[in-house]
Design brief:
By secondary structure, this protein is α+β, with helices and mostly antiparallel strands. The chain contains 14 helices and 42 strands. Helix 4 runs parallel beside helix 6.
């Protein structure tokens, strides 16, 4: 149970996104105006703002509303400014940079004035960054924005900075905004892990989608309004968390996810109102794996996937390996075959086309192959294999069910291995918002699962990729979903029901405890259907970057890797990476230490994981190698250098560029 919240005023927490008259924002903003007694409202920011929000608030019933820009400590300590705020009936904080609010307002008369409005029962609201500063614990952005990919990989880095001594309207909470739009689930998980491990076990993480709000009354009860969902993360009796250096586990984090008209009691930590729009949800699919299944987190990269292919070559024990690719991705298949040839494995490339369906010789070879590999940076060319009339697809499905058969799906093709997979993710960057995603039947190699590769690959599609698996769970009742990314590989063993993960944290959603579900009824202009945002009365998240561990679907806990299984360590002994100076201005020296001569590719990546350039490609000599990184043409911010070695080892170094 969460410690009693007992807020003194009313709180309107908005997840960001543009407000519009006669649209999603009318209800929460009208609520805010009403709780301000339809009186005088001050709209605060640290930047120049238009008069649209004040005018909008007046149109919703406020007697008066005006902007007030406070962009210095001196101004924040002005008595006239403080008097203007403290005499208001409501205070609303605009979006922007939350650290500016902390930097300029913390410990000043402005902070005291906002608190005074709150303490006498007035209304305080905020959107985006302005919402995040209202919780006790604040994602400060002091050292830049923490990307979800970076946060889930290491919650203990400098960028994962938490402020806990500012406005503090909601005790034992941490708010995050633009939640699904920017795929921030992994980021909030990272902050929750950090807070739990520092002794704040009762904190509730509240992730609010864009164009969505949770409006909280003095009794601690909040109602969801708007177009999307609000996810509430907290620990319960099954939640555990561990840390070993920068390795961590967060096991069975409890989640309650709400859409419009659902209500949550922050005092009891329970859903207090479930509207009639909700329905019962069942889980008809058993959880099972078809023999050894390997699924990657990103499209084919020679160094990143060399270790996995080496393992597959060994397990195939001399049997034939069939590499399936559509015509557009034959170069990937050729590269994969080259790696397998290097391990003396027998393999062949299958260029799958419509003509393949009538190739009797191909069907015969499928019947005797030991292993099947699928590769491609989209699924269009291979998706016909899933149709009920596909001769090749049906032959493959038969073989997948046989003991000892190995399968691997690389890149976007990994979605096809699922029981059900989301589709139509890339026809429109707003596909989830506009109700355009579909859910298709996959090969079912991981029964009861849906799988999402390339989760953070392109920020344009963050909402689609993150919404996709949650939507699949809502539509089909699958038990589990796994998000993966980049150089990560997830593998599944059938007898033990163990999930192995390497080179990117396991990010597993467990929907099996959900009994009630709901979805948004909001339809944006021009949409095909309502926004594909789902609610569940309960589910769980487990996440870990400790690659010496596995996750058991029997115990639903992390366990030590069985001693009979040798997994590739993402940071083995005698391999090191570092940079100096760091932070740096224009240039830094990246150093790599290796025990032997080895082939290596080193890339420079943005904070969202997108590759910017190749720093090095070739042979690294044993010992220490120094490489110059020239960032004169890059803007200030967080970057990552990644080194991929031929044995599957991956090293990552965070870089902070300050100009």
């Amino acid at each position: 149970m969460i410690t009693t919240v007992s807020p003194q005023g009313y709180l309107c927490v908005v997840g960001g996104g543009g407000e519009n008259r006669n649209d999603w924002s009318d209800e929460p903003y009208a609520w805010f105006v009403q709780k301000s007694g339809n009186g005088r409202i001050i709209v605060l920011s640290a930047a120049d703002e238009t008069d649209w929000i004040p005018q909008y608030l007046v149109s919703l019933g406020a007697s008066y509303a005006s902007n007030l820009k406070i962009n210095s400590v001196a101004l924040a300590n002005s008595q006239a400014v403080a008097d203007s705020i403290s005499s208001a009936d409501g205070v609303f904080i605009k979006g922007g940079d939350q650290y500016n609010y902390i930097k300029y307002w913390k410990g000043t008369l402005t902070e005291a004035a906002i608190k005074a409005v709150w303490q006498r029962g007035g209304a305080v609201g905020g959107t985006s960054a302005g919402a995040m500063v209202l919780s006790k614990f604040i994602i400060s952005a002091k050292y830049g924005t923490l990307s979800p990919e970076s946060g889930i990989s290491n919650p203990f880095q400098q960028t994962a900075n938490i402020e806990s001594d500012f406005l503090g309207m909601m005790p034992n909470t941490i708010f995050d905004t633009h939640f699904i739009e920017r795929a921030r689930q992994g980021r909030l998980v990272a902050f929750m892990a950090q807070l739990f491990l520092s002794g704040n076990s009762e904190v509730a993480g509240v992730g609010i989608d864009d164009r969505t709000a949770i409006c909280i009354s003095p009794d601690g009860k909040g109602v969801v309004m708007g177009s999307g969902a609000v996810a509430i993360y907290k620990a319960d009796s099954l939640t555990t968390y561990r840390r070993d250096g920068n390795k961590y586990e967060l096991e069975n984090l409890s989640v309650q996810q709400l859409v419009k008209n659902w209500e949550y009691d922050f005092n009891s930590g329970t859903v207090s109102v479930i509207p009639s729009s909700a329905r019962a949800i069942t889980h008809p699919l058993a959880t099972a794996f078809a023999n050894s299944v390997y699924l990657t987190g990103g499209n084919y990269q020679s160094m990143a996937h060399a270790g996995t292919l080496s393992e597959i070559a060994t397990k195939s024990s001399g049997g034939n390996i069939m590499i399936f690719a559509a015509t557009a991705y034959l170069s990937q298949a050729q590269a994969i075959k080259g790696v397998l040839d290097g391990h003396s494995a027998t393999s062949e490339i299958i260029e799958y086309t419509a003509a393949s369906e009538n190739d009797q010789a191909l069907l015969q070879r499928i019947n005797t192959a030991a292993t099947f590999i699928f590769t491609g940076s989209d699924i269009t060319g291979l998706k016909p294999l899933l149709t009920p009339s596909s001769n090749v697809g049906n032959a493959l499905k038969t073989r997948f069910g046989e003991t000892g058969v190995i399968s691997a799906f690389i890149g976007e093709t990994a979605r096809l291995a699922s029981d059900f997979f989301p589709d139509n993710l890339f026809s429109d960057q707003y596909a989830a918002y506009r109700g355009k995603m579909t859910v298709q039947k996959g090969f079912g190699l991981i029964s009861g699962f849906s799988y999402g590769p390339l989760t953070y690959d392109n920020s344009t599609y963050h909402e689609n990729r993150m919404s996709a698996l949650i939507w699949a769970a809502f539509k089909t009742g699958i038990n589990y979903a796994v998000y993966n990314h980049g150089v990560g590989t997830t593998s599944f063993e059938p007898a033990s029901k163990l999930v192995y993960y390497r080179n990117f944290p396991l990010f597993l959603y467990d929907f099996s405890e959900a009994t009630i579900a709901d979805s948004s009824k909001y339809r944006a202009s021009g949409s095909s259907a309502p926004r594909q945002a789902a609610a569940f009365d309960h589910y769980r998240i487990s996440v870990s970057n400790n690659y010496d561990r596995v996750f058991s679907l029997i115990t639903k806990k992390f366990e030590d890797t069985p001693t009979s299984v040798k997994e590739i360590n993402s940071n083995p002994e005698n391999f090191e990476i570092g940079a100096y100076p760091n932070p740096f201005n224009t240039n830094t020296i990246l150093y790599i230490t290796t025990p032997t001569e080895t082939e290596c590719i080193i890339t420079l990546n943005s904070s969202t994981g997108e590759e910017i350039s190749t720093v090095f490609s070739g042979i690294i000599q044993p010992g220490k190698t120094e490489l110059n990184i020239d960032a004169r043409n890059l803007p200030s911010g967080v970057y990552f250098a990644r080194a991929y070695f031929v044995n599957g080892t991956v090293l990552t170094q965070k870089l902070l560029l300050l100009k």
